[in-house]
Amino acid sequence: MAAASGSMRLQRCIVSPAGRHSASLIFLHGSGDSGQGLRTWIKQVLNQDLTFQHIKVIYPTAPPRPYTPLKGGISNVWFDRFKISNDCPEHLESIDVTCQVLTDLINDEVKSGIRKNRILIGGFSMGGCMAMHLAFRNHQDVAGVFALSSFLNTASAVYQALQQSDGLLPELFQCHGTADELVLHAWGEETNSTLTSLGATLKGGEAGALSISMKKIQAD
Question: Which carries the bigger pLDDT value, residue 147 or residue 202?
Fold first, then answer.
């Protein structure tokens, strides 16, 4: 079962700068979380909101849907998984539906006057995987993409898209904690290695290092 697309508008938690923003950061939460939950967690880690002088930070919330790893239980997830592993097929139907919905969010920013090359997309865990699908398969002209404690499946559609790409790709910042017992560090390493071999420009670091190539979208 896939969430309906079209007129769906994601719930959004937004941190706006004091002045008019000239860039946007879309930050996607992990499975079972929410935009507000992610914002609260980051605030606890940093002891303050993630804020920038001219960058609007948007934390959308994934719509509730049945999630196979929870035996079909309803959860706020960006897409379904057959299992939490890198050696199984991707649930492309649900991934592609969410790409359409998140594209509406990107288009809203563009309509408000923000250029695509001033929009950064990223996320934590499942949110990072979703961000890589969104940027590398659908929006290769954004400023960049970041993935925190995330991975792509071995036969990911992202890799297929990059094999067919002949243009410039958004820069990727990827980091992963070595003690992660749910999303294995080795899965992140494999993702990093494969993306590099396919021409992606990568920057890496330890989980929590939220520098995220912000220099690319700092105020002019």
Answer: 147
pLDDT tens-digit readout, 33-57: 999 999 999 999 999 999 998 999 9
The pLDDT > 90 percentage for the chain reads 71
Question: What CATH class does 12-204 carry?
Answer: alpha beta
Q: How many residues does the chain have?
A: 220
Determine how β-strand 119-124 pairs with β-strand 23-28: parallel
Nearest one of 203, 28, 38 to 98, comparing CA atoms: 28
Asked if residue 110 has pLDDT above 80, the reply is: yes
Tell me if the pTM is above 0.85: yes
Tell me the C-alpha distance between 181 and 168, whole Å. Answer: 34
